[in-house]
Amino acid sequence: MLTILYDVRHRHEFYETDEKLTLSVFDKGADPSQVSVDIQPRSLTYKHGEKELVLQPLKGQVDVEKSDFTVGKVKVEIRLVKMSPGRWGSLVGDAPDPLSNFPAAGTPSAPSSGQPRRIAHKNWEGITNEILSSEKTATVDKDPNVGGDSTVNEFFQKIFADADEDTKRAMMKSYQESGGTTLSTNWDEVKKGPVEVKPPEGSEWKKWA
C-alpha cells in the first residue's frame, strides 16, 4: 500500500547518494522536544504537534540503527542510510525490497540476471601492503649487477680475495687472455691452453696494434 500523508504547511524535499538519502522537512521554529521521527525499514513518520508526514512504503530499505535526524531553526533534517547501495529516484514506491532477493547466509543459489548483485570492493590498500612486504631488497650476494659497474667490481674482488691460489690463477689467466670477455675460476680447464676471446653477441673483437 502506497501512503503519503502530510500537512500542507509541511513542505519537504530530498537529495540522495548511493549510500544515503537526506530528507528536509521545512518546519520553522520546531520545538525539538515536541518533534517525533519514527524510522522503520520501509516507512517514515514525522510528527510535530498536529502536523504529520507519513511516507510509506519507502522506495528502498533503510538501516534504522544508522539513520538519524536533527532539528534546526528552519527545517528538520532526516538522514536515511540505505541498506542496499543505489539511487531511489523518489521517496516512496511500491517496489520490491531490494534485499529480499538475496539468499540467507550460507544458502547457495544459482546466479540469475534478474537478481541484484553485491559489488565486491577490492582492498587495494591491503594488496599494496602485501606486495611491499613481500619485496626484499636485492643484495650483491644475490645479484652482482645491483649498483652498476662499481658494485660488480667489488663482487669479483670479494671472490678473488676469498679464493685459493688455483682459483686466483684461473681468474687472472682467463681474464687477461680473453681480453676481459671471460672470467673463469676453473684452473683445471684454464691451464690446458689459451682462453678464447668471447665478445658479447652482436659485437666484433678487434686487437689494437
Secondary-structure blueprint of this entry?
Elements: E1 3-6, E2 11-16, E3 20-26, E4 35-40, E5 43-48, E6 51-56, E7 68-71, E8 76-81, H1 124-134, H2 149-162, H3 165-177, H4 187-190
Antiparallel strand pairs: 1-6, 2-3, 3-8, 4-5, 5-6, 7-8
Overall mean confidence score, pLDDT: 75
Distinct helical segment count: 4
Oligomer: single chain
Low-confidence stretches: 100-107
Protein model, in words:
About 4% of the residues have low confidence. This protein is of the alpha+beta class. The strands form two sheets. The chain has a four-stranded antiparallel β-sheet, with no helix packed on it. A four-stranded antiparallel β-sheet has the order 2-3-8-7, with no helix packed on it. The radius of gyration is 39 Å and the shape is rod-shaped. A hairpin with a 3-residue loop joins β2 and β3. It is built from four helices and eight strands, in the order ββββββββαααα.
Question: What's the gist of this structure?
Answer:
This protein is α+β, with helices and mostly antiparallel strands and 209 residues long. It contains four helices and eight strands; from the N terminus they run ββββββββαααα. The strands form two sheets. Strands 1-6-5-4 form a four-stranded antiparallel β-sheet, with no helix packed on it. Strands 2-3-8-7 form a four-stranded antiparallel β-sheet, with no helix packed on it.
Any descriptors?
four-stranded antiparallel sheet; 8 strands; alpha+beta; 209 residues
